[in-house]
């Protein structure tokens, strides 16, 4: 029996979406922005010590190849010829740090994931060496010195891993975030692989000057990073190289965006003042600020959003970053084991209908925006004998909503014009209880696209629009408006504000929890924190006084 004829659809664009918990490959039709098929593979995280988070770079790469192969098989089952795929984009978890040998192609250590906290003492020491009145790191990068960003992770690898030290001495080591690793491997690896990154990923390393758009010598010297190991910086939309093996051999890789920048593009937030929030492992709210850098006075980051072509201008964004969003659901599933699958948390929260005064601050990796406190740790407070798993599930979802409220408030203060609605995407948005909670806590409508894969869509758009590919127009008049589901606030503002105020009290109790050893080698003591020391002394005075009253 003859094979069925292949469907004629015109050019298609593929997107690699490599996230913290999974890898996916998705195929889109540029004419309609329709998702035709996808395949997903879960990615394991390793926790070798408390606060350490690692992944295997080779497992990440293998998951990409597996997803591409399986997605192409699914296209074949739909009688769609894979030769229609004219370009591939790569979007990725940002900041995660990989060092590998350019002659053997072997990673020199596991990928140090963006959530990793091993560099907390390094961050504290580096921060002390910078003048508050002249914070050149913040001025050049738009970022605070934090465990979050690549520079301190790379600094740790150079200081602590002999294989990395030796490879740098021998001129064999090269560094990259996940995008760089994937593009280098997919374009040939040791046989001519292209070592590059785009401006959005480079801006998350803390080595990139967001004004000159180049690696910065002063920053590299400060963090002790040799500039010879850094990738070449490219725009977010151009042909970097061709895939050298597998079912899509010969297809150009022509789009590269950090995952949050990709979601901004995919949500069509391409104008100054447009914003989106993505709920994945963490939560990230970005507001497009156009071609100008806006410095935050309220704990947000100034970052590069995208550059959609070599001759196109760079667009910037203000970003509020929350470390733990979907990860709190995973923690409830894997650690507390009160649900069997992540989707079950919606049913538990729906049964509860309230947290019954229980508040959850999931500061598992410290607190990111707007506090930037790596010493914070997770707490659940307000517990009574009545509290049960349903209330804790509700409190976990509410915690993500409160964290989003905090960064939205900071965003509104920095921008001066409050957002009238919030566009959202990411895995957690499938949870309708969560979406309604988010609208209630923000006191504004929440808008969710019916096509949820906006991160992959954004990098597919960048890849398809690249010069030499040109199968996807980014002209606004050709871009279809995103169809949205709308969630309106259903509680009064007073109730929302009351719950938010109590949440803020809980946050304060989570802060300053971990005290790292001082540089002089003294054992950590509670009196190394001035605030905490004052609190303890005051409490002692009160107790002694009470005894004699």
UniProtKB/TrEMBL annotation:
One of its GO terms (cellular component) is mitochondrial outer membrane. Its main location: mitochondrion. GO terms for biological process: glycerol catabolic process; glycerol-3-phosphate biosynthetic process; triglyceride metabolic process. Residues 13-266 form the Carbohydrate kinase FGGY N-terminal domain. The keyword Endoplasmic reticulum does not apply. The keyword Transferase applies. Keywords: ATP-binding, Glycerol metabolism, Kinase, Membrane, Mitochondrion, Mitochondrion outer membrane, Nucleotide-binding, Transferase, Transmembrane, Transmembrane helix. GO terms for molecular function: ATP binding; glycerol kinase activity. It is found in: Mitochondrion outer membrane. Gene3D superfamilies: 3.30.420.40. It holds the Pfam family FGGY_N. CDD domains: ASKHA_NBD_FGGY_GK1-3-like. Its EC number is 2.7.1.30. Pathway: Polyol metabolism; glycerol degradation via glycerol kinase pathway; sn-glycerol 3-phosphate from glycerol: step 1/1. The chain crosses the membrane at residues 526-546. Residues 276-466 form the Carbohydrate kinase FGGY C-terminal domain. Signal peptide: none annotated. Belongs to the FGGY kinase family. This is glycerol kinase. It comes from Mus spicilegus. The lineage of its organism: Eukaryota, Metazoa, Chordata, Craniata, Vertebrata.
């Amino acid at each position: 029996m003859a094979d069925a004829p292949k469907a004629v659809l015109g050019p298609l664009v593929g997107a690699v979406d490599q996230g913290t918990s999974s890898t996916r490959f998705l195929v889109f039709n540029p004419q309609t922005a329709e998702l035709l098929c996808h395949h997903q593979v879960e990615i394991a995280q390793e926790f070798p010590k408390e606060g350490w988070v690692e992944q295997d770079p080779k497992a990440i790469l293998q998951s990409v190849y597996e997803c591409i192969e399986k997605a192409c098989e699914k296209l074949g089952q739909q009688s769609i010829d894979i030769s229609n795929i004219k370009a591939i984009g790569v979007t990725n978890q940002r900041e995660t740090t990989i060092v590998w040998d350019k002659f053997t192609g072997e990673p020199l250590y596991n990928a140090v994931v963006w959530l990793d906290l091993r560099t907390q003492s390094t961050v504290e020491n580096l921060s002390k060496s910078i003048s508050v009145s002249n914070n050149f790191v913040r001025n050049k990068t738009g970022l605070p010195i934090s465990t979050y960003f690549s520079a301190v992770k790379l600094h740790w690898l150079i200081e602590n891993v002999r294989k990395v030290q030796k490879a740098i001495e021998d001129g064999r080591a090269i560094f990259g975030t996940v995008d760089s690793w994937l593009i280098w491997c997919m374009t040939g690896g040791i046989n001519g692989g292209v070592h590059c990154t785009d401006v959005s990923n480079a801006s998350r390393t803390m080595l990139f000057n967001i004004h000159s758009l180049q690696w910065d010598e002063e920053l590299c010297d400060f963090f002790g990073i040799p500039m010879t190991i850094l990738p070449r910086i490219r725009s977010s939309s151009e042909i970097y190289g061709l895939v050298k093996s597998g079912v899509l051999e010969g297809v150009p890789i022509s789009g590269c965006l950090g995952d949050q920048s990709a979601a901004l593009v995919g949500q069509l937030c391409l104008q100054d003042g447009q914003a989106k929030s993505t709920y994945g492992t963490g939560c990230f709210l970005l507001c497009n600020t156009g071609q100008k850098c806006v410095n935050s006075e309220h704990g947000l980051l100034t970052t590069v959003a995208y550059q959609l072509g070599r001759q196109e201008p760079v667009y910037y964004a203000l970003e509020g970053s929350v470390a733990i969003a979907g990860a709190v659901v995973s923690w409830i599933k894997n650690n507390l084991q009160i649900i069997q699958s992540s989707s079950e948390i919606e049913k538990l929260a729906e049964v509860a209908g309230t947290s019954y005064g229980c508040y959850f601050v999931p500061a598992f990796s410290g607190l990111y925006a707007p506090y930037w406190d790596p010493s914070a740790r997770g707490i659940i407070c307000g517990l009574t004998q009545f509290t049960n798993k349903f209330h804790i599930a509700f409190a976990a979802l509410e915690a993500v909503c409160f964290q989003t409220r905090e960064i939205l408030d900071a965003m509104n203060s920095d921008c001066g014009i409050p957002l009238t609605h919030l566009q959202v995407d990411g895995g957690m948005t499938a949870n309708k209880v969560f979406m309604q909670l988010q609208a209630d806590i923000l006191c504004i409508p929440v808008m969710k696209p019916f096509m949820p894969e906006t991160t992959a869509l954004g990098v597919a758009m960048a890849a398809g629009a690249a010069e030499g590919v040109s199968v996807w127009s980014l002209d606004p008049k050709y871009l279809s408006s995103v169809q949205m589901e709308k969630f309106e606030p259903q509680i009064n503002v007073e109730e929302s504000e009351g719950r938010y105020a109590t949440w803020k009290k809980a946050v304060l109790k989570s802060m300053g929890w971990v005290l790292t050893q001082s540089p002089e080698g003294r054992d950590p003591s509670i009196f190394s924190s001035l605030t905490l020391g004052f609190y303890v002394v005051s409490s002692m005075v009160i107790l002694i006084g009470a005894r004699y009253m």
